[in-house]
Write a structure and sequence with these properties.
The complex is a heterodimer of chains A (132) and B (130). Chain A is mostly helical. Chain A has 4 helices and no strands. In chain A, 23% of the residues are buried. Chain B has a single domain, classed as Fumarate reductase/succinate dehydrogenase, transmembrane subunit (3 helical TM bundles of succinate and fumarate reductases, Up-down Bundle), CATH 1.20.1300.10. Classes of the chains: A mainly alpha (132), B mainly alpha (130). Chain A: It is found in: Membrane.
């Protein structure tokens, strides 16, 4: 094997000025990680429903608690934010929205839509079921 | 440089070791599953909202219905696949120790497959009404 060539490394976070699109890119990844582990909650809930009343009551006790509610609320936001933020990537994948004002608008849109949809879903949830 | 370097030229070394032309597979599947979930998210949220406030018997009855079981199963397959690819990208970005990277990629696969299989098994069990 020949000597390792010292290749230039691509600069990492500390090199760049913080911008909105960069922050949202990090949030996209962070919400992705949160959803990854949040899937355990979805899985637990389905398994409990298939297991019986006792197991299901445990899930409901958890999602009804303050911590449980916070986690499910956070999960809802992470899911909906990752969704609308991901739709932004579809635009970019297709070659649209690369002008400075366009990418700012898309990014603000994703941030606002993610929060609005989360609030909307929880309003519906409380209207329909009076909370969990 | 402890060992003598190969007599092969740099070009010769990289020939046939280059692109396998499958580099965009994960990129494509990430988008495929993303579009699938974008289409499925509204019915999935409606299903979850339908279940709020119900006890196990009520929830099991709704989850056992055919269209709902299929929608949830599709959503779980898409999300498990999507998160497997996403987490692998994160692992490959930040873990530089080769053995730890391999172990993490493997654990990621196990986690995603286990979550998907457990969820789908639960849905099938609810559908069979046991």
């Amino acid at each position: 094997m020949t000597a390792r060539i010292e290749r230039p490394l691509s600069p990492h976070l500390q090199t760049y000025r913080v911008t909105l699109t960069m922050a949202l890119s990090i949030i996209h990844r962070a919400t992705g990680i949160a959803l990854y582990f949040g899937t355990l909650l979805l899985s637990w809930w389905l398994i409990a429903a298939a297991s019986g009343p006792g197991a299901y009551a445990n899930v409901q006790a958890f999602t009804g608690s303050i911590i449980g509610k916070l986690i499910v609320f956070g999960y809802t936001w992470a899911l909906l934010h990752h969704l609308v933020s991901g739709i932004r990537y579809f635009f970019w994948d297709l070659g649209y929205g690369f002008k400075a004002n366009e990418r700012e608008a898309l990014t603000w849109g994703a941030l606002i839509a993610g929060i609005s949809l989360t609030v909307l879903v929880w309003i519906i949830a409380y209207t329909v079921g009076g909370g969990r | 440089m402890s060992r003598p370097s190969s007599m092969r030229t740099p070009l010769g070394r990289v020939r046939n070791l280059g692109s396998s032309h499958s580099g965009t597979t994960d990129f494509w599947r990430q988008r495929l599953t993303a579009v699938a979930m974008t289409l499925l998210i509204v019915p999935v949220i409606v299903i979850v909202l339908m279940l709020i406030g119900r006890n196990q018997a009520g929830a099991a009855q709704i989850l056992g219905s055919l269209p709902i079981a299929i929608i949830l199963a599709l959503f779980i397959i898409a999300s498990a696949w999507h998160m497997k690819i996403g987490m692998q990208i994160i692992i490959e970005d930040y873990i530089h120790n080769e053995k730890l990277k391999l172990a993490s990629v493997m654990a990621n696969n196990f986690f995603c497959i286990a979550v998907a299989l457990a969820s789908i098994y639960a849905i099938l069990k609810l559908s069979s009404g046991v």
